[in-house]
Amino acid sequence: SAVDDIYKNAAKELGVKMARNNMRLVYGGGASGLMGTAADAVLAEGGKVTGIFPEFLREFESPHKHLTEIYVVNSMHERKQMMAERSDCFVVLPGGFGTLDEFFEILTWRQLQLHNKPVFLVNIDGYWSPLLKMLAQIFDKKFARDIHRNCFTVSDSIDGLIHSLKMAGSGENLDSAHI
Predict the structure, then answer these.
(1) pLDDT tens-digit series, residues 99-146
(2) Mean pLDDT throughout 83-111?
(3) Nearest Cα residue to 179 out of 68, 30, 23, 17
(4) Can you tell me the mean pLDDT for 150-155?
(5) Angle at 159 between CA 144 and CA 31, to 5 degrees
(6) 6: burial class by Cβ within 10 Å (0-12, 13-18, 19+)?
(7) How far apart are CA 179 and CA 102, in angstroms?
(8) I need a labelling partner for 87 at 20 to 30 A (CA). Which of 133, 153, 173, 174 fits?
(9) CB under 8 Å to 62, separation ≥6 — which residues?
(10) Of the candidates 53, 7, 10, the residue with the CA atom closest to the CA atom of residue 31
(11) What is the largest CA-CA distance in the chain?
(12) What was the pLDDT predicted at 172?
């Protein structure tokens, strides 16, 4: 893949540390991208991975063939709902449009009190810094209430994230949405 190695290495590190801390990865079920890398690392360390893969995506990417369990669903909505139900928290690694979609949906659900699970934005190499500036403006301009500033936590490293996860007592299921 064309993304910089710093992001691939972070995804691999996340997978290794999740497995070593007995955390199950719940994700979209694909074989490629950062999440495929994270899934491979969890599995290589003897950890457990649940994938939730929409059938129609087969024309764009392949489902991971070696997961602990995989569910094939009919739509993106069903995928996101199932990932949310099976996860104890949400981790957002650097990513693209799908990552932003999943982040904002789960953040909005938290704001609306549809869940109270921790949401972590992992700002590897400052990747999310422009987004964090935009989010600060949303609060500063009063498009979101200050009480919602705590709807997510920013970590600048995988070690920082793992520490935050342990402090949050997030349980064993960790959703890294292509997040």
Answers:
(1) 999 999 999 999 999 999 999 999 999 999 999 999 999 999 999 999
(2) 95
(3) 30
(4) 94
(5) 85
(6) exposed
(7) 7
(8) 133
(9) 30, 31, 32
(10) 53
(11) 47
(12) 47
Structure tokens given for 25: 């990865």
Quote the CA–CA distance of 42 and 29 in Å, as a whole number. Answer: 13
Pairing outcome for strands 173-176 and 49-54: unpaired
pLDDT at 1: 64
Task: Look at residues 34, 15, 19, 26 and name the one whose alpha carbon lies nearest to residue 81.
Answer: 26
Identify the helix (H) or strand (E) that includes residue 106. helix 97-111
> Contact at 8 Å (CB) between 120 and 150?
no
The CA-based angle 129-3-152, given to 5 degrees, is 35
% of the chain at pLDDT higher than 90: 86
Q: What is the DSSP string of 30-92?
A: BSSHHHHHHHHHHHHTT--EEEEEEGGGGGT-PBPSS-SEEEEESSHHHHHHHHHHH-SEEEE
Q: What is the pTM of this model?
A: 0.90
**Positive or negative: CA dihedral 96, 171, 107, 85:** positive
Residues in the chain, total? 179
- The two tokens of residue 163 are 């520490």
Residue holding tokens 């997030």? 170
